[in-house]
Amino acid sequence: MRVRVLFFGQLKDIVGRTEDTAELGEGERVEDLFARYGQRYPELAKFRGSVAASVNQALADWRSPLAAGDEVAFLPPVSGGEASSGTTGVQRAKEFVELVREPIRVAELVAELKLPEDGAVAVFEGIARNHSGGRKTLYLEYEAYESMALAKLRELAAAMRSQFAVDCVSLVHRLGRLDIGQTSVFIGVSSAHRRAAFDACRFGIDTLKRTVPIWKKEYFEDGAVWAEGEIPGEARESGGAPASKSSSPESSS
User: Fold this and answer.
1) Which CATH number fits domain 2-76: 3.40.50.280, 3.90.45.10, 3.30.70.1350, 3.10.20.30?
2) What is the pLDDT of residue 79?
3) What percent of the chain is modeled with pLDDT above 70?
4) Cα(66)–Cα(72) distance, rounded to whole angstroms?
5) 6, 36, 8, 39: which is closest to 24 by C-alpha?
6) Mean per-residue pLDDT for 21-28?
7) Spatial contact of 167 and 117, defined as CB atoms under 8 Å apart
8) Does position 70 have pLDDT exceeding 60, yes or no?
9) Is the dihedral of CA 131, 135, 137, 138 positive or negative?
10) Architecture (CATH level 2) of domain 87-226
11) pTM higher than 0.90 for the full model?
């Protein structure tokens, strides 16, 4: 049986491609597929403890069996962020999510959040800064598993509205190249009272950083590195210890 295999971030660099196809035998599992690539690319095998897997855009256990036609993605720790030549978004009730490749229209998004019945709007902006780890950053690049990232953003927006007393939620992440000072992620929340808006906004960015498959690459004068991130918690193997937050193979368990 044949499956489609996707690689992102550091893993894409190691195997030298974003997409591949693999022929598997009946009953083979996600872990078997990863092991095959680990044999071909020893550097990839070192990341086994810090990689999550998804099957058909849903996080999967490593022991999950595979079927013909499955889409399997191996996901390095997310650094937390759909795209086409323009903008792709989804407006659903009072939840708005979007992935863009042009500058995020912050002022317009804030204005759209304001409703007559609300007394508060809380906003978080992630900004590309000019340094990291004591080195001067020249610019950033973001990439995403786009269809899955949009689905996760929709889930997050719905969770924010169900868990907090808020009216509108806007989640927008930028992909592609960002220059220093540009906005990488926008989270906006409107509510009748400020506490709910603040709490929902904090929950939104913290959860996005852990669960949405978006990766950041930082470019310096002497090279580039993929930023460290977090492994999606749902992808831990049952009974296993919490995964390391570092994406470097040396720190993997």
Assistant:
1) 3.10.20.30
2) 63
3) 84
4) 9
5) 36
6) 93
7) yes
8) yes
9) positive
10) Alpha-Beta Complex (3.90)
11) no
